[in-house]
From TrEMBL:
<dbReference type="GO" id="GO:0005524">
    <property type="term" value="F:ATP binding"/>
</dbReference>
<dbReference type="GO" id="GO:0098796">
    <property type="term" value="C:membrane protein complex"/>
</dbReference>
<dbReference type="GO" id="GO:0005886">
    <property type="term" value="C:plasma membrane"/>
</dbReference>
<dbReference type="GO" id="GO:0022857">
    <property type="term" value="F:transmembrane transporter activity"/>
</dbReference>
<dbReference type="InterPro" id="IPR017871">
    <property type="entry name" value="ABC_transporter-like_CS"/>
</dbReference>
<keyword id="KW-0547">Nucleotide-binding</keyword>
<keyword id="KW-0067">ATP-binding</keyword>
<dbReference type="Pfam" id="PF00005">
    <property type="entry name" value="ABC_tran"/>
</dbReference>
<dbReference type="InterPro" id="IPR017911">
    <property type="entry name" value="MacB-like_ATP-bd"/>
</dbReference>
<feature type="domain" description="ABC transporter">
    <location>
        <begin position="22"/>
        <end position="249"/>
    </location>
</feature>
<dbReference type="InterPro" id="IPR027417">
    <property type="entry name" value="P-loop_NTPase"/>
</dbReference>
<protein>
    <submittedName>
        <fullName>ABC transporter</fullName>
    </submittedName>
</protein>
<keyword id="KW-0813">Transport</keyword>
<dbReference type="GO" id="GO:0016887">
    <property type="term" value="F:ATP hydrolysis activity"/>
</dbReference>
<dbReference type="InterPro" id="IPR015854">
    <property type="entry name" value="ABC_transpr_LolD-like"/>
</dbReference>
<dbReference type="InterPro" id="IPR003593">
    <property type="entry name" value="AAA+_ATPase"/>
</dbReference>
<dbReference type="InterPro" id="IPR003439">
    <property type="entry name" value="ABC_transporter-like_ATP-bd"/>
</dbReference>
């Protein structure tokens, strides 16, 4: 039995692949109160399986970002239950959620979210800094990850000196920094042209295949859906479809 040692010391057996890493049960979320209440999620149940690329689709306002924020522990649901890697998120306090986000989840956003004054390598090093990884080790791992995303020659450039597609590659490398179990990406290609967007999706696809990382990506770009193993569709805060995508090996 081959095992991969996670940064948190939890060993995950390869045969766990295909078992759920995220389980959402009847998740509800509302914003505001009284007549102003917006019911963003109206009872969402689904699973994200380990080692898969799952696409979350749905038109603007359907609840994608709300759901990703809840699954990533950035917000607490009004109702229902979310389990991540066997941990019920409701059982964690603020510090516990912080540690979970730092150690187990990598985030990729539409707007890249890089720190302008830091080089690409330093940006990739930020999550490792939070875990107090020594500078030398940080630097070495950052360069390895930048090579993985095709940016070996751009490690010392700042975000302003990189194209949008290159910046998003840096963000993907940064999401991988702490060897997460799950990467959550919210419309990672939303600010990129079609071709560049596709290359980012192909990079995520390669990360799933090569590193066994699980990725959940929200997108309403139909051209990108086909690279997913599984597609989950949200409409008005409810799941309407869960099917296999075309990216299944
Ligand atoms: N902080 C908030 N306060 C009030 N309403 C909100 C808030 N965040 C989201 N909503 C509402 O919740 C619903 C779902 O929004 P959400 O951002 O999750 O949609 P989305 O699917 O991510 O859309 P998009 O594709 O445009 O990013 C929308 O009606 C939105 O207006
Ligand atoms: Mg959104």
């Amino acid at each position: 039995m081959t095992e991969r040692q996670h940064s948190t010391g939890v060993a995950v057996a390869q045969e766990d692949e295909g078992t759920p890493i995220v389980v959402a049960e009847d998740v509800r979320h509302s914003f505001g109160s009284g007549p102003q209440t917006v019911h963003a999620l109206r009872g969402v149940s689904f699973e994200v399986r380990r080692g898969e690329l799952t696409a979350l689709r749905g038109r603007s306002g359907s609840g994608k970002t709300t759901l990703l924020n809840l699954l990533g522990g950035l917000d607490t649901p009004t109702g229902g239950r979310i389990t991540l890697d066997g941990t019920d998120l409701a059982s964690l306090d603020e510090a516990g959620l912080l540690a979970l986000r730092r150690d187990r989840i990598g985030f990729v956003f539409q707007s890249f979210g890089l720190i302008p004054v830091l080089t690409a390598a330093e940006n990739v090093g930020v999550p490792m800094r939070l875990r107090r990884v020594p500078a030398g080790e940080r630097e070495e791992r950052a360069r390895t990850l930048l090579a993985l995303v095709g940016l070996a020659d751009h490690a010392d450039q700042r975000p302003g000196e990189l194209s949008g597609g290159q910046q998003q590659r840096v963000a993907v490398a940064r999401a991988l920094a702490n060897d997460p179990a799950l990467i959550i990406a919210d419309e990672p290609t939303g600010q990129l042209d079609l071709e560049t967007g596709r290359s980012i999706m192909e990079l995520l696809r390669a990360v799933v295949r090569g590193k066994g990382v699980t990725i959940l990506v929200a997108t309403h770009d139909p051209n990108l859906i086909e690279l997913a193993d599984r597609v989950v569709e949200l409409r008005d805060g409810r799941i309407v479809d869960q099917g296999a995508g075309a990216g299944t090996p």
